[in-house]
Structure to design on (150 residues):
C-alpha cells in the first residue's frame, strides 16, 4: 500500500480533508499530523511535523496545506533532504517532480480549488524524477544543505 503524510493549519483544514478522502479512494495509507479542526493554530507546528518525517526517511512523500502555502514552504525547506514545492497549477506540480524531485507538495487553499488540488495531487504522485541534468542540480542542492558550497 502506498503511504503519504499530510498536514495543514486551520486555513488548509477543509482542503486537506478533501485531499485525504481523495487519497483514501486511491488506496493510500495516510498519516494525518493535524490540525484536526478549523480553530486557529500555528502552521509551523504542522509543516515541521510533515517535513521531519520526510527528512528522516519515514515517508518518501508528503503534502502540506495552508492558506497561501508560503509559510509551509519556508518551514519545510529548513530540514535536510526536504524539497518542498509550492504549486498553484498542474504544470508546476509536474515540473516540481520531473526537475526538482520534490518530496513535499505544498498547496495554498486560498488559491487552489479542491478539484484542481486533487488533479495536482494525482499528477504530482504519478510523475517521476527525470534525472539527467536535473540530477546534477538536485545534487548541488544536497551539497548546499551539507554546507559544502557557500
Amino acid at each position: 500500500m502506498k503511504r503519504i503524510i499530510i498536514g495543514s493549519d486551520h486555513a488548509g483544514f477543509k482542503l486537506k480533508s478533501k485531499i485525504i478522502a481523495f487519497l483514501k479512494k486511491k488506496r493510500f495509507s495516510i498519516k494525518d499530523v493535524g490540525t484536526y479542526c478549523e480553530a486557529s493554530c500555528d502552521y509551523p507546528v504542522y509543516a515541521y511535523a510533515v517535513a521531519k518525517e520526510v527528512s528522516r526517511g519515514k515517508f518518501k512523500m508528503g503534502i502540506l496545506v495552508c492558506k497561501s502555502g508560503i509559510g509551509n514552504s519556508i518551514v519545510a525547506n529548513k530540514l535536510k533532504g526536504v524539497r518542498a514545492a509550492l504549486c498553484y497549477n498542474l504544470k508546476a506540480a509536474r515540473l516540481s517532480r520531473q526537475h526538482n524531485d520534490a518530496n513535499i507538495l505544498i498547496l495554498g487553499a486560498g488559491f487552489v480549488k479542491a478539484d484542481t488540488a486533487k488533479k495536482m495531487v494525482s499528477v504530482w504522485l504519478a510523475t517521476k524524477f527525470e534525472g539527467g541534468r536535473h540530477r546534477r542540480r538536485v545534487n548541488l542542492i544536497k551539497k548546499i544543505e551539507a554546507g559544502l558550497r557557500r
Notes: The first strand starts at residue 2 and ends at 8. The chain is about 45% helix and 15% strand. The chain has a mean pLDDT of 96.
